[in-house]
Write a structure and sequence with these properties.
The chain is mainly beta. The chain contains two helices and nine strands. Helices cover 9% and strands 51% of the residues. Strand 4 and strand 5 form a beta hairpin.
Length: 118
């Protein structure tokens, strides 16, 4: 049996901007992507803790250390600057792959800088 499991998570980032005039996606500081094991253009689930919105999009890298979290296109309708998000990716794993599986989790400060990794 295959199971869909959390593979990476960026916990409690702060939206820095929302740009409606864009094709779509979420722009994320590359250091956060790397820390959570999220690849550029990988599908992400975005949970907005301020309004309860949960949307799917894809990750676009921003310069490392920039702290950028920008909701683009239609995603900009689901949040605004200052909102807190949890950004997640999932993978499909066999029972054998699940032994010892742990997602990569990144925790950040108020400026979207990594303070802890799991």
């Amino acid at each position: 049996m295959l199971r869909q499991m959390l593979s990476g998570k960026i916990h409690r980032v702060t939206v820095t901007e929302a740009c409606i005039d864009y094709e779509g996606s979420i722009t994320i500081d590359s250091a956060l992507l790397k820390g959570a094991g999220i690849l550029p253009y990988e599908k992400v689930l975005i949970a907005n803790l301020h309004n309860g919105s949960r949307i799917e999009s894809y990750a676009i890298p921003a310069p490392a250390g920039s702290g950028v979290i920008c909701l683009n296109g239609g995603a900009a309708k689901h949040g605004r600057a200052g909102d807190t998000l949890i950004i997640m990716t999932f993978g499909v794993y066999s029972e054998k792959e699940l032994k010892g599986h742990k997602p990569k989790v990144v925790y950040v400060d108020a400026r979207n800088r990594i303070v802890k990794k799991k």
